[in-house]
C-alpha cells in the first residue's frame, strides 16, 4: 500500500504507486537504467510522445517481462504510469529526475544515443 508521501495515479479505481520526488534514490534509478531493455523504454519515451501505451513499445521480451521492466522503472521513479481505459500509459518523469539529480537523465540519454550510433567502443 502506498505511503501518504507517495503520489498515486487513479483512473477507474486502479491505483499505481509512485515514489515522491524526495523518495527517488540514485542507486535505484541507476539500477533501473542499467538494463538495456529498460534503457530502450526510457530512450523511446524521451524521443516520443508525452504518454505512450506499454503496447506501443517493440521490445525483444515477453509481455510479462515487459510488465516487469515497466514496474521497475515506475518504482524507481523514472516513469509515471496511469490508466486510460484498458491501456497503461507511461510518461518519463524528466522534471522530477532533473529536480532530484540535475543532469543525470540527460547524460544517460546522451550516452545511450552515442552507444546506439556507435556500438563498437573502438570506433
Q: If you had to describe this structure to a student in words, what would you say it looks like?
A:
The protein is of the alpha+beta class. The chain is built from five helices and five strands. It has helices at 26-34, 36-47, 63-76, 94-100, 104-117; strands spanning 7-11, 14-18, 52-53, 79-84, 87-92. The chain has a three-stranded antiparallel β-sheet with strand order 3-5-4. It is globular, with a radius of gyration of 15 Å. The termini are far apart. Residues 1-11 have low confidence and may be disordered.
| Approximate helicity band | 40-55%
- Alpha-carbon distance between the two ends: 48 Å
Task: Please give the radius of gyration in angstroms.
Answer: 15 Å
The strand count comes to 5
Uncertain spans: 1-11
User: What coarse outline follows from CA principal-axis ratios?
Assistant: globular
Largest sheet: 3 strands, antiparallel
Helical segment count: 5
Mean pLDDT: 84
- Oligomeric composition of the shown chains: single chain
Broad structural category: alpha+beta
Q: Enumerate the strands of the largest sheet in spatial order, edge to edge or round the barrel.
A: 3-5-4
Query: What is the chain-wise order of helices and strands?
Result: EEHHEHEEHH
- Hey, roughly how much beta strand do the residues contain? 15-25%
Annotation keywords:
alpha+beta; 46% helix; disordered N terminus
Outline the secondary-structure elements.
Elements: E1 7-11, E2 14-18, H1 26-34, H2 36-47, E3 52-53, H3 63-76, E4 79-84, E5 87-92, H4 94-100, H5 104-117
Helix pairs in contact: 1-3
Amino acid at each position: 500500500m502506498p505511503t501518504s508521501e507517495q503520489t498515486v495515479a487513479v483512473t477507474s479505481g486502479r491505483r499505481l504507486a509512485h515514489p515522491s520526488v524526495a523518495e527517488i534514490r540514485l542507486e535505484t534509478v541507476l539500477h533501473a537504467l542499467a538494463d538495456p531493455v529498460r534503457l530502450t523504454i526510457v530512450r523511446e519515451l524521451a524521443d516520443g510522445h508525452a504518454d505512450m501505451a506499454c503496447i506501443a513499445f517493440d521490445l525483444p521480451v515477453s509481455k510479462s517481462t515487459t510488465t516487469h521492466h515497466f514496474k521497475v522503472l515506475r518504482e524507481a521513479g523514472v516513469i509515471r504510469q496511469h490508466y486510460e481505459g484498458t491501456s497503461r500509459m507511461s510518461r518519463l518523469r524528466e522534471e522530477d529526475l532533473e529536480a532530484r539529480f540535475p543532469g543525470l537523465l540527460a547524460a544517460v540519454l546522451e550516452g545511450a544515443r552515442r552507444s546506439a550510433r556507435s556500438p563498437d567502443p573502438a570506433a
